[in-house]
Amino acid sequence: MEASAPQPAPKKIAIFGVGLIGGSLALCWKGKPGYRVVGHSVNASSVEKYVSLGVVDEGTTSLAEAAADADFIFLCVPVGRLGDYIDELAKLPLKPGCILTDVGSTKASVVAHAERLGLKDAVFIGGHPMAGSERSGVEAASADLFENAYYVLTPTAATPPEAIAELEELLRWTRAKVVMTDADNHDGIVGAISHLPHIIAVALVNQVAGYNETDDLYRRLAAGGFRDITRIASSDPKIWRDILVNNKRVLLQLMNDWRGEMDRFTALLEAEDGEGIERRFREANEFRSQLPERRKGMITSLHECYVNVPDQPGVVGRIATELGQARINLSNLHIIESREDVPGVLRLSFRQQEDLDRAVELIRTMNYEVYF
Ligand SMILES: NC(=O)c1ccc[n+]([C@@H]2O[C@H](COP(=O)([O-])OP(=O)(O)OC[C@H]3O[C@@H](n4cnc5c(N)ncnc54)[C@H](O)[C@@H]3O)[C@@H](O)[C@H]2O)c1
Ligand SMILES: O=C(O)C(=O)C[C@]1(C(=O)O)C=C[C@@H](O)C=C1
User: Fold this and answer.
1) Ligand 1 centroid, distance to 344 Cα (angstroms)
2) Which stretches make up the ACT domain (predicted)?
């Protein structure tokens, strides 16, 4: 009998900080042939939790054990701790060629830190997946989190191209689109499209919470618009404390520009310049419509329609009930608009085209306008 060829050892991926992002990354490689995912936390009860959830193959509280022989190390801890982890790892005998990367929401300081330190055998490449959630912790982790999102890498002129290619290859399992830029450019752009919006959302919620202290109707009337613009105000305070302080220089400039935007709006209002206000909305609409739409596999396989519904109690429930009674499988129902003076719009999603076709027929017999 011929002896079978020896299998190459699986690539070891060590993940430090198995929370929302670390856990989601782990799930992209867990169970894939040729990979072994090891999680690290300082806390034994955290290790127990994500091992029992099946997010990693193994877990440990020992930094040295997690890092030993790792082919890839992902630092997924808060931005304020990244430098400390790099310092600790630099003291260990890392596997020659090991790729050390992070997922922090800011890049300039961590890239500069790694460069200053000059790792011996490992190569550091800054990384940042542009996907996330206001939720945190491993319970919120999902293998689909990064699908079709951008994943930024910030190599420097000194980064070996083979190491970048190796990391890119590994990241293919996330189904994200890798994009490269330098760390400073990253921090400027992400400051504007992510960090400033988080500040604005939190400030707005706190402003309204202040008014609400004397009248609870503020809270009760806060509907779609307020929810849409403030979802991210529920993000983890410690994660965001670190991000904002780390990107202070960029953010102070952006907040100055923001005050300018507010002043221009104030002037338009003072002058009752309706045309000017309309123009600002049109301009915003035009830019916003160019934002990339993130299509996840789950969503692209959906078949959707829109239904105009009058603003009357029970209409949404009636439509859902009729669909259920007709055994039409509705996979999602989203109320896009609901105000007193305009009809609401419902978005209905189905997994099968056949379900959509039957739903459209049925809803039209209920005399609601359906469109696509
Ligand atoms: N949340 C997002 O939307 C998002 C998106 C992209 C990148 N990031 C970045 O990813 C990193 C992790 O964020 P997350 O959203 O996964 O947070 P998370 O709270 O879900 O996970 C953080 C992990 O780090 C550990 N941790 C927390 N404090 C620590 C400390 N002081 N020392 C050591 N370990 C600690 C936690 O146990 C947990 O495993 C951050 O650097 C964040 O900037 C977040
Ligand atoms: O969707 C969200 O909740 C996010 O806040 C995700 C988000 C973002 O602002 O887009 C937040 C922080 C990250 O570093 C990357 C992505």
Assistant:
1) 38
2) 304-372
Q: Is residue 224 part of a domain?
A: yes
17 alpha carbon to ligand 1 midpoint, in Å? 6
20 with 119, same domain? yes
Residue nearest to atom 2 of ligand 2 (CA): 133
What whole-number distance in Å separates Cα of residue 149 and Cα of residue 88? 31
State the ipTM, two decimals. 0.99
Q: Return the residue whose CA atom lies nearest to atom 15 of ligand 2.
A: 130
The CA 131 to ligand 1 mean position distance, Å, reads 13
| pLDDT higher than threshold 60 for residue 298 | no
Q: Do 37 and 171 belong together in one domain?
A: yes
Domain assignment present for residue 293? The answer is no
- Cα-to-centroid distance, 130 and ligand 2 (Å): 6
Where among 181, 201, 222 does a domain terminate?
A: 181
Closest CA relative to residue 30, chosen from 142, 137, 127: 142
Within this chain, do residues 192 and 307 fall inside the same structural domain, yes or no? no
Q: pLDDT exceeding 90 applies to what percent of the chain?
A: 79
Same domain, 201 and 137: no
Atom of ligand 2 nearest to the CA of 197: 9
Are residues 165 and 198 both part of a single domain? no
With a CB cutoff of 8 Å and minimum separation 6, the contacts of 124 are: 86, 100, 101, 111, 114, 115
357, burial (CB in 10 Å: exposed 0-12, middle 13-18, buried 19+): middle
Neighbours of 112 (CB within 10 A): 15
Regarding the beta carbon of 148 and ligand 2, being less than 6 Å apart is answered no
| Same domain as 223, residue 160 | no
> Are the C-beta atoms of 122 and 150 separated by less than 8 Å?
no
Give the pLDDT score at 5: 72
**How many Cβ atoms are within 10 Å of 354's Cβ, its own excluded?**
12
Q: Which ligand 2 atom is at minimum distance from the Cα of 232?
A: 3
Q: Is 27 in the pocket of ligand 2 (CB under 6 A)?
A: no
Domain, as residue range, for 110: 11-181
Tally the domains of the chain: 3
Query: Among residues 229, 261, 288, which one ends one of the domains?
Result: 288
Find out whether 68 and 87 touch, Cβ atoms under 8 Å: no
Contact between residue 78 and residue 105 where contact means Cβ atoms under 8 Å apart: no
